Each structure stands twice: as C-alpha cells, then as structure tokens.
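Q: Can someone sanity-check these two? First one:
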Amino acid sequence: MRVFTADFSSTRQWVAGRSWAYPDGGPENPGDDKLDHLVADPDYSRSGVFRARKRPDGKWNTGLLTTEGSEDAFMVRSGDVLQARVRLPEETGAWPAIWTWRDGDQEIDVFEYHPDNPGLLEFTNHVRCAGHSFRDDAVHPHAWVDLRTEFGVHSVVWWVNGEQVFADRRGVGHGWHAYLIVNLSVCAGRYHPAPDPGTTEMSYEVSRLTVSPPESGT
C-alpha cells in the first residue's frame, strides 16, 4: 500500500523555502496579497512548527515545505486520503494552509485559516471551482483540529474532528495528481487584515500528516 507519512525534517521528502506556486519559485508573492519572503532556514518549518518573523523591510520571513522538487517527489493522486492534525495560530495576519499544486494549477486547499475569522475554516477545490466556509466552536486560535480530505474522482470530501462537513460533488477527475505544500503565509491586508504593528512573530503547528489510498471497501 502506498502510504506517505510526513517527516518534515527529511530533505528527501521536502524542499524548504521554494515553491513554483510563487512567481519564479519565490521568495515573494505580493500579487496573492502575501507579505511572505520564503526562507530555507530549518527553524521556520523542519520541526513541523511553521513560523513567520517580521523583517526590517516590512516583509516576513516565512516557512514553507513542498514535495515538488524533492528527491522523493511525492504527489497526491485521485482517490487518496490526507489526514492531518494542526494547531491554529492566534495572530492577526497569519495565514496557515495545507494545499496542492502542480504546473501552475491543480490546487486543492485542505484548509486555510485566518484568525480575524476565528471560528472559520476554508476549503476550496480550485480544480473544479467549489468551496465551503465551515464554522464551528471547536475552531479557534490555539485549537488543535483533526483534518481529513478525500480527493475523490467525483467529489472532494472534507472532515473536521471526525465529522464530515463538506462534499463538493465536483471531485478532481481521473488521473489528477499534484504536489503537497504546507506553509504559513502572512496577509498583506487586501483580503484579510495585515498583522498588528506590534506583532513580530507568529506560528502554527502540524503534528501529523499522512496520505494513503482509500480504505478497503470505501
């Protein structure tokens, strides 16, 4: 059985501080309302704690890991199931996410979160234009949240803390495949507020992430 268990410290599995989801591979992406300046420093991502720290120029050094360009070159595929456990950030401007990307597209957002909407998680299928905003009291800054995303051919299905919360009935189609990205971005203020002036650091944590084929009989 093809099972991927994330080891964020592994340079075989993950490339740090570079992604072709950013113009020219990074390090910055202001067109997407991000203050990010991607860095490869392992302190920003390799422990599973994804960090951002303010720079003197007003941008933020940020942590990002992707399987694209790594030695293993792992990709999520149609039918796979991703499960993760994350601790949400509290700082205004924090923008944590787990998502997929390949060749300028193929983006499925396992989750996005913005502390200015403290009780809301965002789920999006950019491949076939579907999405959902999920509200729950269990979603809040510092909360640990268990996520499950099923990348179905005919429907992408999202679960939160063991409960199915959205099925898009659009799916990813046969033959879909894409690399994984885990990162912490910082909002520039167009869509969500930028960080408070006194904030200089922020973080969120991913304590577990696995990708596996669907369970037998499902």
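And here is the second, same format, sequence then tokens:
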Amino acid sequence: MTILNASNLSLEEVHRLFGFQKQFNNSFSNLLSLEPLTETEQQELQQIYEDFDRYLTTGKVSEGQVKFLVVAPLLRLAGFYHYPIEIRLEENIADIEVEDEDILIKGRFDILAINKAKYTKNSAYFWVLIIESKNSQVDISTGFPQLLTYAYKGIDNQKSVWGLTTNGRNYQFFYIEQGNPPIYHLLPSLNLMEPPRAIELLQVLKAICKL
C-alpha cells in the first residue's frame, strides 16, 4: 500500500482520488446570514489589521505568526472561543484509505473548530470550520489540497463543513458538501487589508460560528 501525506497532494490528485467537483458561489448571503458589526467589533478588527500590517512591513510573516497575530484574534472576536465551540490544533486526521488505488492518506489538521453540543450520525462532535494557514508570502491556493482532503474525511459523518485557507492577508472560504460526487463551493476571496472585505470576513466567521 502506498502511503501519502495530504500536504504533498496536488489539487488535481485530490480531484481524482476523491471525485470532488468545484462550483463557484458569488455571494456568502446564499449560504449564511451576515449581521452588521458593532462599533466595538470594528475597532477590534482595525487593531488586528494594524498589528498584522506592522509585521508585514518588516517582510515575511511566518505561519506561526499568522496564526497568533491574525487567525486566533479573528476567531476570538467571531465567538469561536465560547462554548459549545472548541478549537483543536495540530491533530492527526483519521487515515483515509482509497481502496481502488491501494493508497492510504495521512495528515494533520492545522486548526479545527468543533461544536461539542452538536453531534454527527456517528456520535462524533460536529465539525464547524477547518482552517489551513500559510505564511504571508505563500499563495493561499497551496492550502487547497490539504483542506479538501481533511474536509473529505469530515463529510463522512456530516452533510457539509466549512473550510478556510489563509496567509493572514488573503482568505478563501470553501463550503464542502457530501454527495456523489462531493462538491466544494468556492466563495469570493476576502482581504484583511481592504476595510470593506475585512468587515465581510468577520461577518462570515461570526455567521459560521453560529451555525
């Protein structure tokens, strides 16, 4: 049996191994109910932007710094630190076996948010959001294969899951649905450094947290 690491897969390989079909969705409002931000939320969002921008001006921001400076504060502001949501970091995924090709895929989540009050059909905690982060100089598309691989395991137990890839500056959301074939929806790309898009970014995270 061939053992592969999810981090080494290409998007083409992910499409072939799991049968994913891609669809474009031009509006978050088709899937989520976005609410206006409070003045306090907008001020905190501005602070996250300013903190990150200061690091960007010095050059490359590492993946760890992206998580600490941007992803973690955004998740806190969006409500992901409150029960019943729980954040899990750097956990191994359950092995994915592709029987027809005698392939076993292993990997490790970057960030996974679960809902401890909501269960899947197999009595596992419901996956709310999978996040794959990269350093500030890496194109976020490099995280697509890993994210979709992890999401594929998630939709074994539930009908859909949200995914996000980010390098701190750019944010690409996915809505992944169980099916034959499984489908992933690409939503409009958002940018923390553009105020209207940054506001929408926090609105989307808040809406996903409340699902």
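A (reply): Looked at the second one. The chain is about 30% helix and 30% strand. The mean pLDDT is 93.
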